[in-house]
Amino acid sequence: MQWIIEHHLLLLIPVVSALVGWGTNYLAVKMMFYPLKFIGIEKLYLGWQGLIPNKRKEMAEISVDLLLGKLLSVHELVDRLEPDKVNAAIERRLKQVIKKIINEVMEESAPRMWSALPAQGKNLIYARVEADIPNVVEKLVRDFQHNVVEILDIKELVVDYLSDHPALLNEIFLTSGNKEFPFIVNSGLYFGFLLGLPTMVCWYFYQAWWILPVGGLLVGYLTNWIALQIIFEPKHPIKFGPFTIQGMFLKRQHEVAEVYANLIERKLMNSENIIRAVLHGSGSQQLWEIVELHVSDAIERYVAIGQPYFGLGIGPESYFQMKKSAAKRVFDSSEKYLLYLHEYADSALNIGDDLRDKMRSLSPAEFENVLRPAYKQDEWKLIVVGSVLGGLAGIIQLYYIF
Q: Assuming Cys at both sites, which of 302, 329, 340, 367 could form a disulfide with 101, CB separation 3.0 to 4.6 Å?
C-alpha cells in the first residue's frame, strides 16, 4: 500500500511541473504588459510596472524606426493629397470661418469704415474672398507638401502619442502576437510536464533535497526559453520532406501585416493624429509662417483690387496688424474646418494598404522586429522571475508532498 502511494506521489512531479510551467509563462506574459502604471513604492524600487508600459518611449522609438526606416515615406504620403479635393472637403466650413474672421478683423482694425459699409458692400467682399479660397488652399497644400519634413515630425508624433497611451502600445503588441502570446502560456503546460519527467526519474533514484527546487527552477526557465525559440526560430523556412519548419510568428507574416497595418492606420497614423501633430507639434511654427504668408498675400490682392487706398486710410501699422491678426485667426481656427478633412485624408493617404504591402515584403529578420522588441527589453527579468517561482514551487512540493 505504501509503495502504491509513493508511486502515485511521484506522478505528481510532472503534473506540478506542468502547472509551474503554465503559471510562470502566464505570469511572464502578464508582466510584460501590466500594470500600465507603477504599483508599489517607486522611490524604494519596490513594485512593478509592465515592461512595455515602463519602456514605452523606447518601444515607441523602435516601432517608429521600423515604420520610417523600412515602410513609410512622409513625402510619398502627403503627395497623395490633391488640393482641389482638400478644398472640396473643407470649403463649406472654411467659408463660414472666414466670414466670421473678416467681421472680427474689420471691426477691430477699421470699425467706423466697416460699420458704415452697407450690407451689399460687405457681401461683395465676402464673395471676393470666397472665390479666392480654392487658390489659397492650393498654394497652402503645395507649400505644405514641399516643406512637410520641417512641419511634420512623424517620429515625434508616434513616440509622444504612444508614450501618452501605453494601452495602445500594449494593443499593438498583443494584436500582432494574438497567437504567439497564448502559445507561450499554453506551451508551458506541455513543456512543463515533459521537463517534469526527468525530475521524477531523478527523485525516484536519488532523493536529494535540492532535486525538486532545481527541477522547478529549470522548468520556470526552460518553458519560456523554448517557447521563444519556437516563435522566432528558424527565421527562414527549412524543408523536411513534406514538412516546412519556421518560427510560428514569421510564418504568419502576411496575416500579421494585415492586422498590424489596420491597427496602425485606425488608431495611430490617422488623419486626426497627423493634423494634431502638424498644428501643435514642433513644426507648427513653420506651418504658421506658410499660413501667414499666403493669408497676407491674399489680403494684399483683395485690397489692391477693391480698395487700393484702404491701407493708407487705416494707417500702415494698423494695416500690418490687421493682416497678422487675420492670419493668426485662420491658423487658430484651423481645427474647426480641418475636422472635415479626416474622411478624405484617410482615404487619400491610404496608410493601411501601403503599410501592409511593405510589411509583407520585409525579410524575416526585418519582420521579426515587429514583435521581438516586446521580448528583448528586460527579457532576463521575466526569466529570473519564472525561475525563482519554479524553484519556490519545487520547495513547496518538497515539504508539503514528499
A: 329
Q: What angle in degrees, to the nearest 10, is found between the helix axes of 56-66 and 154-164?
A: 140
pLDDT higher than 50, residue 3: no
pTM of the model: 0.80
Count Cβ atoms within 10 A of the Cβ of residue 250 and give its class: 0-12 exposed, 13-18 middle, 19 or more buried: buried
How far is 377 from 373, CA to CA, in rounded Å?
Answer: 6
Grid cell locating 278: 502638424
How distant, in Å, are the alpha carbons of 33, 162, 271 from that of 266?
A: 21, 14, 9
| Amino acid letter, 188 | G
Question: Do the strands 39-41 and 238-240 form a parallel or antiparallel pair, or are they unpaired?
Answer: unpaired
Closest CA to 101 of 68, 125, 137: 125
Contacts of 69 (CB under 8 A, 6+ apart): none
Give the distance, in angstroms, between the CA of residue 54 and the centroid of all CA atoms in the same chain.
15
Residue closest to 336 by CA, chosen among 79, 77, 83, 100:
100
The three cell numbers of residue 285 are: 511654427
* Phi, then psi, of 241 in degrees rounded to 5: 65, -125
pLDDT digits (tens, 9 = 90+) for 216-260: 788 878 887 888 788 878 888 888 777 778 888 888 888 888 988
Degrees to nearest 5, angle at CA 212 with 207 and 191: 130
Q: At what angle do helices 211-232 and 180-205 cross, to 10 degrees?
A: 150
Query: By percentage, how much of the chain surpasses pLDDT 70?
Result: 89
Angle (CA) 255 167 68, round 5°: 55
Predicted confidence at residue 1, as pLDDT, reads 43
Sign of CA dihedral 257, 232, 238, 187: negative
Long-range contacts of 396-402 (CB under 8 A, 24+ apart): 397/12, 397/13, 397/16, 397/212, 397/216, 398/209, 398/212, 398/213, 401/9, 401/12, 401/16, 402/9, 402/203, 402/207, 402/212
The CA angle 40-45-49, to the nearest 5 degrees, is: 55
